[in-house]
Amino acid sequence: MSILALLSLAFLWFLVFNQLRFEWTVNPLYHYGWAIPALAAYLFYERWRARPVPSAPRGLPWTHLLPIAGLLAYFPIRLIQEANPDWILINWALAGLAVSITLYYIYLWGGLRWLVFFAFPVLFVFTGVPWPVGFENWVLQGLMRANAAITAETLTLCGLPALAQGNIIFIGNELVNVDEACSGIRSLQTAFMMSLFFGEFYRLGLLGRLGLVAASFALAFLLNLGRTMALTVVGGTQGLDALDRWHDPLGNAVLVLCLAGLWLTALLFQKFSRSPKQSSVAAESSAKSNPAPTDPATLGTVPAPFGIPAYLSITAIVLLLLAEGLNEAWYRSREADLIQAPDWTIDWPRDAERFTLHEFSETTQVILKYNEGKSATWRADDSTEWSMYYLRWFPGRASKNLAGAHSPDICLPAVGLQMIAELDAAWVEVDGYSLPFRLYLFENAGRPLYVFHSLIEDRYREVQDLVSLRPLSREARLAAVATGQRNQGQRVLGISISGPFNEEEAWESLRRGLRPIIAVN
Prior knowledge:
Helix content: 40-55%
Number of helices: 17
Largest sheet: 7 strands, antiparallel
Radius of gyration: 28 Å
Structural class: alpha+beta
Strand content: 15-25%
């Protein structure tokens, strides 16, 4: 095999996995993705040991235009990726490009026979690509609602009255959020991936593999249903603190039992997929056509694969490197006039009255994809009640528009607060550094709640101004590419103050409270 061809493939797959690692790290649903490269490589190795005689590729050299066209398509994909590393569509585009070129190289090495034979290990990589957001939400929300409804009905029949409303289960004086308490439903994606792996590992037929996929969904749902019932009973009888203690142990148990159940199901399918007579005939036929791959003396009996033209591999490497260079030149040429903001940190008032740190939910972490995030509540010296959160994105972590798509006027009404008005914006100077704040007026239980929101760029043009807040649409993502705006680092400060009677008092309370909290380096 051509060393240059392998190098070009290695470089391409490095780009793919480097892109996917963000989602594998942030999203608990896809933590299993870190195992995908090793599992795919193992499946390919097993196929390689039993590889058939290569057949001659056809249609050359005109078919060489296919991978070159794909690599030219990488240029715009790379530009879009730089400004939108969190866009799921980019994950599929990069993975599809790498899979297509890999399969074409395999076709050049061994013709149609090798293309079909090695297709599964290559396509298996798609199991580590996050599902499209709309489809994923549709599947998971539907399953969680069904989970909650079945749990409530079952517990009621067993003498523990429970009521399900959407994802919420009311039992006794407590309520259990299926979205949080039963996030073990994430085992669905892991189970699906492992069902495909076991089907290939045991070389099951088509019906056996389809049956294993169906079993993965059934096992994941039923085991998670049992976990939901257990957590709901614990939460309803012992309180939510006890539920939190059992949350992770039961989640891990569900995942282990699901994988063990899949493995046993695969063994069962393998055992009954063939009759003894069919098995002996198949084994004899296999032994005649393919000598035992573990015998070193027989490994050389398979003819060497056909070659890949050096110019094709060199062209691939040059185009990939050129795309990286043009991408960097495009964005740097539009960032030459950016000013570096002073560094600053948060000194939380831990000695304040009723100071309490809070954790963000997993859902919030998955949606916002921040690097640092903290939230706290306390009573200030002027007797106002403060609730503050701080989020930070390092350069290149996510789209520049992601932070601006989640503002108080969008998020707070979703938790029951009524927005009255968006008031005038202003700049608050702290230790010689001015922070831009928007101010919103909400009503909470009949009392005014003043909500300040500041989105701060680590690098900005001329002056740290108010950053545009708009939905994270496809148009906004592409506009960021056209104007050469990538995420140079961002921070968000969100502060809710209850107690002031008017706008002027709210601003004064903010200025007074921020001085000891913001430390400018």
